[in-house]
Design brief:
Elements: E1 3-7, E2 13-17, E3 22-23, H1 30-40, E4 50-56, H2 62-73, E5 77-83, H3 90-93, H4 98-101, H5 108-116, E6 122-126, E7 129-134, E8 147-152, H6 166-175, E9 176-184, H7 189-197, E10 201-206, E11 213-218
Parallel strand pairs: 4-5, 4-8, 5-7, 8-9
Antiparallel strand pairs: 1-2, 2-3, 6-7, 9-11, 10-11
Length: 220
């Protein structure tokens, strides 16, 4: 499928899959969406502790990068697992402007290392941040009670409805520790009902720019 780099409303870039008219991040602002959904309504719930994060859709690495940056500010030790079935092309990574837009030149080598590190192997990015990338289908995740927080950033239900089903959310529920949290940009009623059906407590929150709502789910 044809892919191209586009600029979103906040000046940050993303990858568009032209045939699907679907983007890796919101056209209303890739960085703004990432911060609102995954940092403000996810990572910020944790302070001064060890946090194990599972990202569903490692993609461009934007969520991992901003998590690395923000974790330095709030004294977190992060174990970060990024699952991606189809890794982004290195040539595409070089065209993304996240380091520039975040004014985070000191983290440029970290961002590159995130993408250059071997799949299926632990990579120590700093004394407080360890990354493991796993290349596999989300349905093949077998972890149980392993994560405090899930960033659910799969492609939308319009183009990949199979990623937003009870089967998938049952895998997510199982992978979370007790009181673990899942955050996602999605807000469709069918997604919320699938989460509820597997046992999550679900709340609607104010959405990022361009979206009225988003969802946060907790495993009680």
């Amino acid at each position: 499928m044809e892919r191209k780099i586009i600029t979103t409303s906040d000046g940050s870039t993303t990858i568009q899959i032209v045939d699907w008219n679907e983007q890796y991040h919101s056209i209303h602002g890739a960085i703004q969406e990432a911060y609102h959904v995954f940092i403000k309504n996810g990572l910020s719930l944790y302070k001064d502790r060890d946090v194990s994060i599972l990202e569903i859709g490692f993609g461009t690495g934007l969520n991992a990068l901003i998590t690395f940056i923000e974790a330095q500010k709030i004294n977190l030790n992060i174990q970060y697992t990024g699952v991606e079935a189809y890794p982004v092309n290195p040539l595409e990574i070089k065209q993304l402007n996240y380091v520039e837009q975040l004014k985070a030149q000191e983290y440029e080598k970290i961002f590159l290392k995130m993408h250059e590190s071997d799949w299926e192997k632990s990579c120590k990015l700093s004394s407080t941040f360890e990354l493991v990338k796993q290349q596999k289908d989300f349905m093949h995740i077998k972890d149980e009670a392993a994560f405090d927080l899930i960033y659910f950033d799969a492609f939308g239900a319009r183009v990949q409805p199979e990623l937003w089903t009870e089967d998938i959310f049952n895998i997510m529920y199982r992978a979370l520790k007790k009181n673990g949290v899942l955050v996602t940009y999605a807000a469709k009623g069918s997604v919320r009902r699938a989460m509820l059906a597997v046992g999550f407590e679900v709340e609607r929150l104010e959405g990022p720019p361009g979206k009225r709502e988003m969802l946060r789910a907790v495993k009680k």
